[in-house]
Design goal:
Blueprint (H helix, E strand, L loop, with lengths): L4 E5 L5 E6 L6 E7 L13 H8 L13 H7 L3 E6 L4 E7 L4 H13 L5 H19 L2 H10 L24 H14 L5 E7 L3 H12 L30 E8 L6 H13 L6 H7 L3 E12 L2 E10 L5 H16 L3 H18 L2 H9 L9 H13 L31 E4 L9 E8 L5 H21 L3 E7 L2 E8 L1 H16 L3 H5 L10 H13 L14 H10 L1 E7 L6 H7 L6 E2 L11 E5 L7 E9 L4 H22 L5 E9 L2 E10 L4 H13 L6 H10 L7 H13 L6 H9 L3 H12 L5 E5 L15
Helix pairs in contact: 1-4, 3-7, 8-13, 14-15, 15-19, 20-21, 20-24, 20-25, 22-24
Length: 775
């Protein structure tokens, strides 16, 4: 069997990981610089993160308008970067033909940055805006509080975010430190580059060697021995009820400790009978559980379990039961646990994107079973955890979602449409089911439906299946995607749980939703705002199975299956047998036809604004091209020139069957009216048609060039809008769009000819709005 991976050390000292994955439709690069916030001088907090931002601002060879971000976005790819404590990651995913140009730009921007003061001043304000948002983000502050539990001598307990005051640009010492950090760490010996795609290993190696030659020679620097995570018991503050935090710190673990923890957390998250979570849920103690690593470096490991308990729970007993379960796991055959883990990792690898695979390789965590070093780390990790002989436990059986389907010959339900736009050879399938729920009880039953799916969703995630249940207006939607057989099994189980929730799902407590960043809250509210229905009084009654049966009998549903071959139709029909409600294909929702203002409860002092401009189907090709051409100018004006905020985005989006242009911004210092004014001013300036950009956009709408999930979602949204999905027709329409079409469409947008929906975290529109009437 031909090899699919290759690992090399290049002449400049750079470590290279290559992965040939012929089933992939895209290629990806993940470049890790082995230095992060803890490697920068402690007197300049945020320096490493600041440098990461500066590197995206253009080079002598590639100006900002032709740099990595604009280039990848123009190809319909994705690009980002992140700074952690001991490493900085840069990564992107593009169509295979775009890998060469994108990799050249990535290496060039890291090897030859321009660090002039003008760029630094501009980007420091962006860092400061991020700091303000970070300081008010619930999850970020929760993590920061957890890190304060370690020894104050360890850099984890310090401030690393960076802001306007920790980055004194005029100080010569700061400039010397910034350039010194760059020269010390942005060299070949400190870099690991991982490439993944359908290209051959030889082709990937040639690309990597050509572009990695831009880096100067270097050797891997030995990091300083970190201070201990503990100088006694962890200083963990007691979380307010109903939350409970469990924090674990380890020292001197063998290499591979993070992979070992991944195996352990997979067992811990398994909520099937026999495990810790199942016992807590059976006692009525557990509402939700999450577990994740917080830090891993040089044999040190810090990880966290966050529990949302019911009022009946005993936190001390919860902890004792965990120790009993850990004692049981310690007694198991680690080779057997690893074999099961390896099978699951293999499934995840089949379902993973090019970017996910490249990032895992770059981090030294490929989706595979533990090697001998990681097995030794697992042994040491389990030895270091508190354990006792308490409780009766068992290992979970084989995950049903990953078992082979039995042959079935059930017919497909009448309301299900089969879409053939995604070939079965892609080994990716998606199922969409949407119910119109007319009963005013839908809001109360929605809580029960969500609880009924919690444990299944957690299991599905472990099996590389994405399962979501959403509610917007009078609609409920179930979406399941991943490997085809697993999707069929997960869908059948989801329908059973929705139709007949378990006893504990009827009376559980309502989980508390942590506050979100304002712009994220607006995005989550957009589908419901587009499908808003008149409020109806809630009947005073006790919910029971009979009422739920009645709700489902009156429901009307439509569905779409994408990526299934005919051999699986019988199994899919069996999974959907008895689906609730009556099949129905409703007419597309009417367009807004006027300007609407909607206030969204999104706490926070920063102003957040979304402007969605829906378009009828016949104008959506022109709308896509307009959004494509506006993406760069909107970012340049609002983010770079005006520095209004760091959360700036724009583009064409399909939401709840509506297609249109979406603009978003969150700003720490600019009000809603001014934000909208800047946006409308920019739109009023018009755009110039770029034939090359038009060609690039049209090429993105070809099934081999699109991500599998993207193909499925496009087909679903297009059908919700009442259209038949046809990628060739969309490509032709984009190529037929001319300058006069764009000019006319811009005029219609500014006049709100097809309506506007403006969402903001402000109760009323500002005084001076560009319309006379607001809803």
């Amino acid at each position: 069997m031909p090899r699919t991976t290759r690992h090399l050390s290049l002449a400049k000292g750079l470590q290279l990981n290559l992965r040939h994955a012929p089933h992939l439709k895209r290629s990806a690069a993940a470049l890790r610089v082995h230095a992060g916030s803890h490697d920068a001088p402690a007197c300049w907090p945020g320096l490493a993160h600041f440098l990461e931002h500066l590197l995206f601002l253009g080079t002598a060879r590639f100006a900002l308008a032709d740099g990595l971000m604009r280039h990848v976005q123009g190809l319909g790819g994705e690009v980002n970067a992140s700074t952690a404590e001991r490493h900085t990651d840069f990564f992107f995913e593009v169509p295979p033909a775009g890998l060469d140009g994108a990799l050249l730009r990535l290496c060039d921007m890291l090897a030859a940055p321009q660090l002039d003061l003008q760029r630094q001043r501009r980007e420091r304000e962006v860092i400061h805006a991020e700091f303000i948002a970070w300081s008010r983000d619930h999850q970020a502050q929760r993590r920061f509080a957890l890190l304060q539990a370690v020894s104050p001598r360890h850099p984890l307990s310090g401030f690393q975010a960076g802001n306007r005051y920790s980055l004194p640009l005029q100080a010569p010492a700061f400039q010397q430190a910034l350039r010194g950090y760059y020269r010390r760490f942005y060299q070949g010996g400190q870099i690991t580059l991982s490439l993944t795609g359908p290209q051959s290993l030889d082709e990937l190696e040639q690309l990597a060697c050509r572009h990695a030659a831009l880096f100067p020679y270097g050797t891997r620097l030995l990091p300083e021995t970190p201070a201990p995570l503990r100088d006694g018991p962890l200083r963990l503050r007691r979380a307010p009820a109903p939350h409970c935090d469990l924090l674990f710190a380890h020292e001197a673990l063998p290499a591979g400790a993070l992979q070992a923890l991944e195996l352990l957390l997979g067992l811990l998250r398994d909520n099937r009978p026999g495990g810790w979570q199942a016992k807590l849920r059976r006692r009525g103690w557990l509402q939700a559980c999450s577990a994740q690593p917080l830090y891993a470096n040089a044999g040190q490991l810090l990880w966290h379990i966050e529990l949302h308990l019911t009022a009946a729970a005993s936190p001390s007993q919860v902890k004792h039961l965990l120790e009993g379960w850990l004692g049981f796991i310690r007694q198991q055959d680690l080779q057997r646990l690893n074999a099961t883990f390896g099978d699951r990792q293999m499934q995840c690898a089949l379902a993973a994107s090019a970017l996910q695979l490249a990032r895992r390789d770059s981090a030294g965590q490929p989706l595979q079973a533990l090697d001998q070093s990681a097995l030794a780390a697992l042994d040491a990790l389990l030895d270091d955890l508190p354990r006792r002989n308490l409780g009766s436990w068992q290992l979970p059986a084989d995950e049903p979602l990953l078992t082979k389907l039995l042959e079935s010959h059930a017919p497909l339900p009448a309301g299900l449409v089969i879409d053939h736009g995604l070939p079965a050879c892609r080994q990716f399938a998606a199922l969409y089911l949407r119910w119109h729920i007319g009963s005013p009880l839908r809001q109360r039953f929605q809580v029960i439906a969500e609880r009924a799916l919690v444990s299944l969703r957690e299991r599905a995630e472990q099996a590389a299946v994405q399962l979501s249940f959403t509610a917007a207006g009078e609609y409920w939607q179930l979406q399941v995607s991943g490997l085809p057989d697993a999707v069929i099994r997960a869908s059948g189980e989801a329908l059973q749980r929705l139709s007949r929730p378990a006893a504990e799902d009827w009376h559980g407590e309502v989980g508390e939703r942590p506050p979100q960043m304002p712009i994220r809250a607006l995005l989550d509210a957009l589908p419901g705002a587009l499908q808003a229905s008149a409020a109806t009084p809630q009947p005073a009654c006790i919910l029971d199975q009979t009422l739920l049966d009645g709700l489902w009998q009156q429901a009307r549903w439509q569905g779409l299956a994408v990526g299934f071959d005919e051999a699986r139709y019988g199994a899919l029909g069996a999974a959907l047998h008895g689906i609730m409600g009556q099949p129905h294909r409703p007419d597309p929702a009417p367009y807004l036809a006027e300007r609407h203002w909607l206030s969204v409860d999104a706490p926070g002092e920063q102003a957040a604004l979304l402007l969605f401009c829906p378009l009828p189907p016949e104008l959506q090709a022109a709308g896509r091209l307009l959004g494509h051409l506006l993406q760069g100018p909107v970012y340049q004006r609002l983010r770079v020139e005006l520095q209004l905020g760091y959360a700036v985005f724009s583009g064409f989006r399909q939401v709840a069957g509506y297609g249109g242009l979406l603009f978003g911004v969150q700003s720490p210092q600019t009000g809603h009216g001014e934000l909208l004014g800047h946006l409308l001013t920019l739109l009023g300036e018009g755009v110039r048609l770029d034939p090359l950009a038009r060609q690039q956009l049209a090429e993105q709408f070809d099934e081999p060039a699109m991500g599998n999930a993207e193909v499925a979602e496009w087909a679903w949204q297009t059908r919700l809008a009442g259209e038949e999905p046809a990628l060739p027709r969309l490509r032709r329409a984009i190529l037929d769009t001319e300058q006069d079409h764009l000019d006319a469409l811009l005029g219609q947008l500014l006049d709100a000819h097809y309506g506007w929906l403006c969402l903001a975290n402000q109760a009323t529109p500002p005084d001076r709005w560009p319309w006379a009437r607001a809803s």
